[in-house]
Fold this protein.
Amino acid sequence: MKIFVFSDVHANLTALEAALADAGAVDAYWFLGDLVGYGPDPNACVARVQALPNLVRVLGNHDAAVLGKMPLDWFNDEAQRLILWTREQLNEANLTFLAAAPEQTVQDDVTLVHGSPRSPVTEYILTAEVAATAFRHFHTDFCFAGHTHQPVRWQQTQGRVHRHSAEAGTPLHLVPRAILNAGSVGQPRDGDPRASYALYDPEAHVWEWRRVAYDIAAVQKRMAEKGLSAMNAERLTIGR
Ligand code: ZN
């Protein structure tokens, strides 16, 4: 069994299509939140993800903000502008689909959240201290998250938590307990501009990060045409 695990699409349809094509046929899709925000293709991305078979998903902070479920002042000025733009763009059916996402879900021995199990929609796991706290807030062997846009593994061993950098293309046999961040499809921030996602085999507990190059210039062109921020367009080139 093969599951496509992905997060932080952020309305970047070109990156999403590249990642889906790279994975080929899979049995299920687990989406870790932030389908919209930043990118030029909110309706197309919602429609594409909604149509995926065996989709399991959770709500991201940008999704929540677009739905009016989160105060806008949590975001910087530019992100606020993009959230309001996205809200205007999305049709009723797509807003309804976004609103139906739970804040977290458990699939067998995996907890799925956008941010962290302590605060599923908003908390960033960026340090071993925060990760250590996060381990106390879920009870499955594994937790899959997104939100930081940085693919990483937090491994808990004998009460200690260690950070392990992602190695794309190398299958990893998961050992309990661990928090895995799938990285970001539509706006990577680890210095590698390629779309990031993971393939997961839930029976063998094998996880593999994948990176896929896509046509960044095409996305930047659409962002410019739609009057979206040049800064957010530029960061796609550098992956920050
Ligand atoms: Zn995000």
User: Anything to note?
Assistant: The pocket of zinc ion is lined by residues 8, 10, 34, 60, 62, 147, 149 (CB under 6 Å). The CA atoms of residues 39 and 134 lie 29 Å apart.
